[in-house]
Amino acid sequence: MVDFDARAVTWDDDPRKVERALRVAALIADEVPDLGWRRVLEYGCGTGLLGFALRPRVSAVTLADSSTGMLAEVEKKIARSGLADLTPLRLDLSTDPPPAERFDLVCSLMTLHHVPDTAGLLRALRALLTPRGVACLADLDAEDGSFHGPGVEVHRGFDRERLGRALEAAGFEAVRFRTAFEIEKAGEAGPRRYPVFLAVARPA
Question: What pTM does this model have?
Answer without folding.
Answer: 0.94
